[in-house]
Hints:
Blueprint: H1 9-20, E1 32-37, H2 65-72, E2 77-83, H3 93-101, E3 106-110, H4 119-127, E4 131-138, H5 140-145, H6 150-162, E5 165-170, H7 175-184, E6 190-192, H8 206-213, E7 221-226, H9 242-252, E8 257-260, H10 273-283, H11 289-304
Parallel strand pairs: 1-2, 2-3, 3-4, 4-5, 5-6, 6-7, 7-8
Helix pairs in contact: 4-6
Amino acid sequence: MPNQFHPSRRKFLAASGALLSRPLSAKPCGGFIDAHVHIWTPDTSTYPLAAGFAKGRMAPPSFTPEELFTHCRPEGVARIVLVQMSFYKYDNRYMLDMMAAHPGVFGGIAIVDENLQDVKGTMKALAAKGVRGFRIRSTKASAESWPSSPGMVVMWKSGADNGLSMCLLADPDSLPSALAMAKKYPRTPVVIDHFARIGMHGSVDQKELDNLLRFADLPNVRVKTSAFYALGNKAAPFTDLAPMVRQLRDAFGANRLMWASDCPYQVVGGHNYADSISLIRDKLDFLSEEDKSWMLRKTAEKVFF
Length: 305
């Protein structure tokens, strides 16, 4: 969940430097999957930023796979779902190149321009390279416009035909319109990021959560329990989010929930990776071992690998 805060370069590099000094096992134990991570490189010559983005505003200035591994491998996370970074907009090359460079480690969620003449063909070409989902920004206005957007209709139909998920970075007030779209295309897999950002401005609003719980009636909808650093109290151990996790587990079942860190934002600003995975793995006594297995691996594996 970008743009929540912009940590200093000094703090980020100090934290990464300390972690880089730790030995990494060749085959990390645990086998967990982090279902939502952004990566980027300071090499803006090979991978130029999209119009409107400046290198000086990249915070942190770098988050490569190697930097990611120093955080996730000590916690037993073996695979990661990469989410195309907004710095690159529709140019998915860096994500795709890193997927190819680390076979079997990364799944991918791309961003495409729904106004392309051949958006369906573009989606299929990306799917051939390992992409299993497409990120869509879901504001109240944009979600209301989806039924009248020819390109968006193609995306949702192609998602249904090819098992490709529509991955919604949703604002809470967009949920009613997003639900209407999901009902119109019930065969289309849908993944809602970061609890639909409920609690971003403080305590969880039950009315907003009820709107998210309504998606549970649609079996192809899943939810990421993620970005803990940005929700509720925004402080470890993040247990203030437990009631929201429990309601989602009760409504959707753990087999339709997936944990994610939302790195690098989870590992800056005084936060760390261990606190994120620990909420699901260690802190919630209402989660059975089977629940944890689904949330920490099996749901994301089924959808993105």
